[in-house]
Amino acid sequence: MKIVDKIKAFSRILSWALVFFFAYLLFSPVVSFAAIDTIAVDVGISVFKTMPIGVVPFAENKGAIEWIEEKPHQIVTRDAQLSGRFEVIASDKFNLALFSKNRAKHYITGKVTPAEGGKLRLECFLYVAQTKDLLLGEAYTISQQDLRRAMHKFFDEVIYRLWGERGVASTKLAYVSKMDGIKQVVVSDYDGFHRSQITRDTTISMMPVWMRENKGLYFVNFKTHRPKLYSKLFGGPIKSVFPQLDQTYSPAVNPKTGELLFSSTVDGKTDLFIGNPETGKAKKFAYLKSNQTSPAWSPFASEVLFTSDRGGGPQIFVMGKDGSDMRRVTFMGRYNERASWSPEGDRIAYTSMDNGKMNIYTCALDGSDIVQLTNNAGNNEHPTWSPDGKLIAFASNRSGSYQIYIMRKDGSNVTRITNSGENTSPTWSFFYEDANKQQTKEGAK
Amino acid sequence: MKNLIKFALVATAASLVLVACSKQQPPVTDPAAETAPAAAATEAAPAAEAAPVNQDSLAAEQARLEAERIAQERARLEAERARLEQLINQIMSEDVYFDFDRSELTEKAKELLAQVGELLIKEERFTITIEGHTDARGTEDYNFTLGAKRAMKVKEFLAAYGIDGKRMESVSYGKEAPKVEGASEEAYSQNRRANFRVNIKD
Fold first, then answer.
1. A189 pLDDT higher than 70
2. Mutation to test the A interface, candidates B6, B128, B141, B172, most A Cβ within 10 Å
3. pLDDT tens across A257-268, in order?
4. What's the sign of the alpha-carbon dihedral B107, B111, B114, B116?
5. What is the DSSP string of A295-311?
6. Considering A104, A138, A163, which residue would you say is the last residue of a domain?
7. Angle, to 10 degrees, between the axis of helix A147-163 and the axis of helix A72-83?
8. How many domains does the structure of chain B reveal?
9. A394 interfaces chain B, CB cutoff of 8 Å
10. Rounded to an integer, what distance in angstroms lies between the CA atom of residue A100 and that of residue A107?
11. Does A337 contact B at CB distance below 8 Å?
12. What is the ipTM of this complex?
């Protein structure tokens, strides 16, 4: 083909493309966002690299222990599957051929024996498969009720040894659970076990968020017939925070200072306020014409995500911690709300409504690279990042009732962690600081 | 929500009873407060002094009159209470509905609000709390702001109708207090609303 022909062919294609483009502009219902509506969306493409790991049942004398809980290797297996970091290669006994075939360079096993006072002596080991070199060994003497937590602790040690990062097996979730028709705030381990009720009120409690160092929670309660923020240190009393302000909700704890960013509605207008919950002093955060809610801090508290209705429906914006340099983040769709910043700082997760259905998305900070994480499974909302940034917990009514689920940050490996009643609005705790483990990523290896 | 309405009703009823009681009580506790109790007190005193004159029948007659008076007063208060309760129920049943993710008042909403406005103009002791609600779709957070906008639109309308802003308070319940449970369009449309709680100013 001559160059002239090529140019002709190209210009023909171009003219058709233009015709289609203008036809699209003409018939598209939302002309102003027509170009933006064509942003590509990925659905559930796994971008995770997982590490195969062998798990072998812990040695025990037959009948020596009456198991009322799951056995140690079952707990570790669930932790490994939930972690988003491992692929479990299960085996009844050490099996080098199987481990090698599945590229499992390490395996976990242990030994459990009865100890005094009905307790258990638990020995947990991480071995190199090829050499059987011991990489990590931990021993605990515990009652059987504490087995799960001991295994979580050991599993986080395994993650630290193999990944040089802190794991989340010892973290917790706060969420809202309907009891006798009233929403109450509850806390459980990240896997849904060891649940404890935090509020016992005759009025709605909701929107729990964690204080720094996981010392307690802030949440919203309706005892005064209005949404108002309260604080509760674990084991302490419930206290009103910022009682001078009307209708306070959407709390977000500054991870560096402990200050609280939140919404307050006065005479129908909703603004962001920032305050010190210790002193009770608060001031308006940004003076904007629109209503603002759902604030969220960046990992180092330098910037703030929030939702504004200035375009009519809710859209996500970001601004500096001093209220400057406001930018719009979401453009696709008419309803994008409640963004939260990944602990790694590179992406945000948020909820978007389309045709009345809620789904969870992530995108880059400039709104590009949108990935839809949930699809075709009821409503999915209220995403919250695990503190290691690998996982997202959320609420979904895909089973018929609202329950809490955990998935990897790419939307894969969805696991339900609550089973009964109605559970919504999860927020993930911070890491639990271990006194003998103050090292960070850099300190590893 | 039902509980809340019930609570509001009970609270209002209780306050009415209290008002009623406080009007009946003075004869005993504070004789100087009102004319009727004062009369009762002055009648009672001479009766005690004029002991010889057929004390028993006089006392009985007085007791009868007093009982009658109290009964009449009770009936009057009861009627007033029933009238107020009926008005309060009327106002509390006047829900105003909205379109999805909108806070503008529809024509029908304005008609209803005009009726509420009339009632509020007549009954100056009434103060109201306007509660804004949303349907179950969307986030808790944004629905608070949406409910607040709806309550505010109602308040603005009533203010324009001539109701003093001090008599009105607005609050958002977001999606937390649905009138109708369920995930149907029917339930949603019933829940996208603003409703009233009525209090009586002393």
1. yes
2. B141
3. 999 999 999 999
4. negative
5. EEE-TTSSEEEEEEEEE
6. A163
7. 50
8. 2
9. no
10. 11
11. yes
12. 0.85
Give the pLDDT confidence score for residue B53 in this predicted structure: 62
Domain limits at B37? 12-82
**pLDDT score for A18:** 52
Of the residues B142, B184, B196, B198, the best mutation for testing chain A's interface (the one with the most A CB atoms within 10 Å of its CB) is B142
Alpha carbon distance B147, A420 (integer Å) = 29
Kindly determine whether residue A313 and residue B101, on different chains, have CB atoms separated by under 8 Å: yes
Dist CA A228 CA B155 (whole Å)? 21
Are A340 and A349 a contacting pair, CB within 8 Å?
A: yes
pLDDT band for position B81 (cuts 50, 70, 90): confident
Contacts of B149 in chain A (CB under 8 A): 268, 291
Q: In what side-by-side order are the strands of the sheet with A303-311?
A: A292-297, A303-311, A313-320, A327-328
Can you give the length of chain B in residues? 202
DSSP bridge partners of A248: A264
Contact (Cβ atoms closer than 8 angstroms) between residue A169 and residue A79: yes
B144, HSE (Cβ side, Cα atoms, 13 Å): 30
Query: Residues of chain A with pLDDT > 70: what percent?
Result: 87
Judge whether A425 is closer than 8 Å to chain B, CB to CB.
yes
* Nearest CA-CA distance, residue B130 and chain A, Å: 11
**Higher model confidence: residue A443 or residue B123?**
B123
Which of A206, A267, A290 has the highest number of chain B CBs within 10 A, making it the mutation to test binding with B?
A267
Beta bridge partners of A174: A187, A427
Please judge whether B176 and A356 are an interchain contact, meaning their C-beta atoms are less than 8 angstroms apart: no
In single-letter form, the type of residue at position B193 comes to: R
* Domain assignment of residue B7, yes or no: no
Whether B45 maps to a domain, the answer reads: yes
Q: Tell me, yes or no, whether A354 and A306 share the same domain.
A: yes
In a domain, A31, yes or no: no
Answer whether A208 touches B (CB < 8 Å): no
CB atoms B172 and A307 under 8 Å:
no
pLDDT tens digits, B11-29: 444 444 444 444 444 344 4
Q: Domain containing A108 — which CATH number?
A: 3.40.50.10070
Same domain, B126 and B38: no
Q: Do A337 and B4 touch (CB under 8 A)?
A: no
Q: Name the pLDDT band for A6 (thresholds 50, 70, 90).
A: low
Do the Cβ atoms of A294 and B139 come within 8 Å? Answer: yes
The residue written with tokens 């917990």 in the block is: A393
Q: Which residues of A touch B140 (CB under 8 A)?
A: 206-207, 249, 382, 425
How close does chain B come to A46, measured CA to CA in Å? 27
In a domain, A122, yes or no: yes
Residues of B in contact with A356 (CB under 8 A): 137
Domain limits for position A86? 51-163
Instruction: Specify the DSSP element, H or E, that contains B72.
Output: helix B55-93
Please give, rounded to a whole number of angstroms, the shortest distance from the CA of A96 to a CA of chain B. 50
User: Which residue in the set A222, A225, A250 is minimally distant from B141, CB to CB?
Assistant: A250
Q: DSSP strand E in chain B: where?
A: 96-97, 126-133, 168-174, 193-200
Among partner residues A265, A351, A382, which is closest to B145 by beta-carbon distance? A265
